[in-house]
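Hello forum,

I keep getting stuck at the same step: I have a sequence, I want structure tokens, and every attempt I make locally crashes halfway through. Rather than fight my setup again tonight, could one of you with a working pipeline run this one for me? It's a single chain of 385 residues.
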Amino acid sequence: MRDLLFLAHRVPFPPDRGDKIRSFHILRHLARDWRIHLCAFAESEAERDPPPAFRDLLASCHVIPRTKGMPRAAVEALATGRPVSLTAFAHPAMARAVAGVRQGGVAATYVFSGQMAQYRGQGPTVMDMVDVDSAKFAAMADGATGPRAWMLAREAKRLSAFERRVARDADATLFVSEAEAALFRSQGGQGHVLAIENGIDATVHAPGAVAPVVRDGPLIVFTGQMDYRPNIDAVIHFAQTILPCIRAVRPDARFAIVGRAPAAAVRRLAGEAVIVTGEVPDTRPWLAGAAVCIAPLMLARGIQNKVLEAMAMARPVVASRAAAEGIDHGGTIAVAADDRDFAARVLAALNGPATNPAARARVMERYGWGARLAPLDRLMKDMVS
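Reply #2:
Ran it on my machine without issues. Output:
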């Protein structure tokens, strides 16, 4: 076995949010053929000491607490001319950890997320951008005003230049969908750019795997990290604009927002019609209990794991065009064109079949992790041969 340095902006365990699900499954897949040396940041006490079940995948594990706040990162970025996304993850302890691993010798480096590209070093390198982050900031800038708009536009411009520079130097640059890869190329991205899509463990997310949550009336369920701005904006817009149209016809329907760290604006939505759970040990009971799962995201990049999970559990799904864009769903989910259409499609799901076996069949056919990551094996082999 050869040694691989794996850089991640968050410890890839537990795999309980979109980016960590991807990084965990990629790391576990690569550990079959590589000795993995992990250097990653931790955002919580729980992440600082990963359990033996995860450490057993690794030859070495170097976890650095990420303590720098965004205000300090923004000041550093303005002073140095760098993107905030990089200064937020610039840490001398991480640089020392990476240097220590490299001193022992590694055959290649796998960089997960653009924030960690500042530590990439020399030698064969795979750069997993996941999404075109600069495009996300550009989209947010378009909807902002004043100093915030200026700062977001600055971040988009400087981060885009950094992403293109990294891609030129890397042996391969990965994105989570062909749509993201095509977007990057259209913005001047060069080099070996390709898509390695996310997958799903359909044995874990399966109908009947867990007992469903039961509440009075049908549940409309959204799952996600609830301090993440696109998720915040999505649930607020749905609760205030779309849900009233649904409840005018189905007053018994309730909207459940399921996910950790809900922002204050999300918590304020809680009431008779809206449930805000905060962190739950397992989102599957809520998915199992959903009459319909929704993804009303106005800004979305790549593949939405929340949609794949709902499909795997054979739930009816209604998604915005942005949320559905990266998924090859084959028409097994409903894609809404606007707010009025979204409400109509949710009502149709509430009044339609209780399960969606076609969506589960599509996931099993198209999105098993083994099939999705098979191209990565060939890529890694060719890179170091």
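The mean pLDDT is 95. If your local run keeps crashing, start a new thread with the error log.
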